[in-house]
Specification:
There is one protein chain. This protein is mainly alpha-helical. The chain is built from seven helices and two strands; from the N terminus they run ααααββααα. The protein has a two-stranded antiparallel sheet. Helix 1 runs antiparallel to helix 2 and helix 1 packs across helix 6. The chain is globular. The protein starts with 10 loop residues before the first helix and ends in an 8-residue tail after the last helix.
Amino acid sequence: QRTQRDRALCSEEANLIMNSFEGEWAQGMSDNTLSAAVWTILTYTGSLRGYETTRDLLKDLRKMLLEESRGGDITSIPLPLIGRFKQQTGERGIVIPIVAETRSGLKVLTWVTRLMNILIEKGYGDGWLFRRRNRKRARMVDYADIFFEKIEEVQRDRPDLIPPDVHVREVYGMARSLR
């Protein structure tokens, strides 16, 4: 029998995952792991399907964050996404406001800024926020191993949240579990 891969992450699990990424950041993380961390936090806080998150343009995000910062502290991140979404007709893009830091402590702005700064340091001023080495848009599957490893880490550390008998890669899905 086919299993629906849509078990949702709770906020405690999301926080544990991001805390794990934070530990890696402190020790130095690869660009791909950084991208996976930002993909995870934006998909979760934006209530997006995993494949929608990779449609973000770096140049538009930088411009909108600059405009947002002119008003003082940034309390939300305007996330510009390209493409059609959820039976949308006409326009080919949307902007989703995402809180800069959640009440539970997820530091969305911090992670987005880290990735933008790394990309800018490498000379990428435009194009996709989530990209492959060849500059083409990344796909959610590019982060699959990291995503599932983080959930499995939560399962090992906190079996009260994810019991050991749960087959993580069968019940969690990148497209739906972060919504």
